[in-house]
Amino acid sequence: MKVTVSRKAHFNAAHRLYRKDWSDEQNQAVYGKCSNPHYHGHNYELIVHITGDIDPETGYVMDMKILKNLIKIEVEDKMDHKNLNEEVPEFFDKIPTAENIIVVIYDLLKPKLDPSHELSITLYETPRNYVSYSG
Ligand code: NI
Question: Which residue in the list 15, 34, 42, 74 is annotated as catalytic?
């Protein structure tokens, strides 16, 4: 019997979407406001879903205190109030789109979880734009 438990988290971060090998015009055409050379911020909302069996001893799929702490260490401490392009090594050579951010978050969390648990993540970049990833 598989049950999914979910935890919401939040971080603020700045980014700029651009390719150095493109002209300013091309960057502007593809990335629009997100290509602003002076950066800009988003209030990212993260939802982490863990699916697994209920432990018959604890009645939990996963202790949410552990999940909360894991998200804090692996995501919030690394990304909250940071400039993703300049301060988070994973984005030094990767454009910090929501798509790339969610894959980075997945790869940070997955190795820390019980291998029998499935991980699925949703990341809101704005209230209306969000991405999902399950590996
Ligand atoms: Ni943006």
Answer: 34
